[in-house]
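Budget justification note: compute hours in this period were largely spent on complex prediction jobs such as the one shown. Inputs:
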Amino acid sequence: MLLSQQDPRQTSTNCPDSSKTPFNSLERISLFELRLNTIHLGRVLVCRTISKPIQSAAVHVEIEDPIIGERSSAAQETDVTTARLPLYNFNVSGVLGDVLDIGTRLFIRKPYCEFDAEDGLPMLRCYSPDDVVLVPNEQVDGPLLTGLRWSNAVSITYGPPVKQQSRPRSGKIDDLQRRGNEQFIRKEYASAIDSYTQALELEPDDVALLSNRAHAHLQLQQFRKALQDAEAALKLDGANPKARFRQAKALYAMRSYEEAWNSLKMLSKATVETQELSRRTRQRLEEQKNGRYNVMSILHEARSTWPPYLDHSDYVGPMRVTEIPGKGRGMVATKEIAEGSLLMCSKAFAVVFEEKSVHDIVIKIVDKLKKEPWVATELYDLYAGPNMPPMSTNCTNATEAAEIDIARITNIVIENSFTVDKELWTPLSSQLLPHANRRGVLDVGTGLWILPSLINHSCLANASFFNIGDFMFIRAVRDLNEGEEVCVAYVGVLDTYEGRTKKLEKRNFECHCPLCDFERAQPEATCRRAKLLDEFTRMRPEIQMGNVGKMPRLKVIMDEIRKTYSTASATISTSSRRGKKGKKKVTAGGVATTTSPPAMEPHQLPIGLFRTLSAYSHLNACLGQFNQAVQALHEAFEVLPRIAGVNFVRVDIAMQIGKMYGMLNRFDEVGRWKKVARKEFQMLYGEDQGLWKEYVDDFDVC
Ligand SMILES: C[S@@+](CC[C@H](N)C(=O)[O-])C[C@H]1O[C@@H](n2cnc3c(N)ncnc32)[C@H](O)[C@@H]1O
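Corresponding output:
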């Protein structure tokens, strides 16, 4: 509404006016023309209500202007001006909702408009009930109504009531409907559905029954059935607002946001419920189309909801599913993708938030299949292990039961599920870094996500994932070439070759990432390194406690690990240079089969040194030898390139280096390393300022 600011309580005209002045002698004014804080004497506002009235200190209702003149039907919906109207001293004999039903036309004398003290939005005021007249529905014409048309938002036919052509409803149907309604109010939704169904058997074309049954299905989260009923009702009466709203609600719940939006557009935006659903639908479309998520607010949402099942859209970046030789299906980039880009956001198919057995999530999935049988198609399409060939099912009908194959579901969970964290910062850093002890060990659960399940593993993964509640976000941690395979890490790269291989063996495959191939080709050096790291692992608790007596042995272990790499690199081609990008192997099908190469060749990545360097830095810091401590951290940062799965460690290390420089009064370096940490952080979580601040505050506390 366009409003011009004037002095409070100013009158717009000197024209004498009283509550007795006949309406027909007043000049009509539109909402659009109203000036702020002005009593428009001699004027009358003709409008109609577009929401149900709410009774508090005043009766509150929303109104809209009529459409004046010829305008296209597309313009009608968007050009209509609406406003809020509190009616004080408005005494009603009878049910308020009946007296002031949606679509009631009002004449308002001396309209006055001001800003609401609470929310600062403009609204109309009407203190005297004599200044408001309700125009009966039957009255079509009259001087003030001449030439007025209304928007399509509220579909009401004005004029004398049309004689119903349809045959009268039998008393039995009325009884069944009443029973259904009572059951609905008692939240006995299944029984209500039963009653409406019995009534519909007698009268299949009853709009109210279909719409009510849709409502009951919505309560039971039987969205497809709700949609079927709402659509059947709309076929009989396309202007039925309840059926339309239920159609939109079902479509929203089924994550068909575009269709939900189209449905909402056909409906009045007047009610609070409709407006709220429209707002949420627009947000979901923005997320789905542009991958724009407010991560911080999603985090707040997850922290204030239990269980944190969140209401957000899925997003898929420039990637496609394709066959990857030796790996089954996988995902590849369809164009060059910059590091830090969001690749995917996905809502879990099923999730348990506490540490529970596989059985618990299987039960959840079975429940879901019973409620929404059509989701079986995407579930059974997932990899179910080497001994279970793919199963195709095409369960599209809401009433059709999905085949419940417990053995297959169990296998699918084992092969595809991800661990679920309750908080964002992974516990990995607190295990590795003695200084970093933030939120402690996190409660973990298990989740199954459909599209992320098609992403294969690499120890040198280029995509990292994290979850907030039941939402998974996946980002590229390095630049990706077009056609390059997108991989996440199923196991941590800081584990030894043997450790990683054993874990992957359980999943029935052997990893052929450049690091695994390199370590496999150097069995002696790899085995020696594993033994040294084993010894280090045993010493680590004491190192973490600050036992500086362990320093000499730690130094020996570190030097020995360093040697295992120099032996290996002497026997491996030394043609690759530091910083050189790896080459893609392109198959006949044109698909790159390598994962994104890290900045260095594997034998130049002495990743196994990382943990000892970090521990060595810690002991030096305990001795107050900050120069040596910071030097070791620098090396730790160098030996661990940006690899998904452990990249949070780089954020931590960069922060540690900054902190250490602070001890040395090198404040220029403090700022520089904070920037480095910020960049690493953005690779994982995007550019959310609030999230970064929370992390920094957390870090400063420890
Ligand atoms: C979560 S699924 C990944 C999608 C799967 N490739 C598919 O076709 O549905 C995990 C399975 O994919 C295969 N896989 C994943 N990463 C692999 C890799 N690096 N090398 C070989 N097979 C791999 C293994 O069979 C593994 O058990």
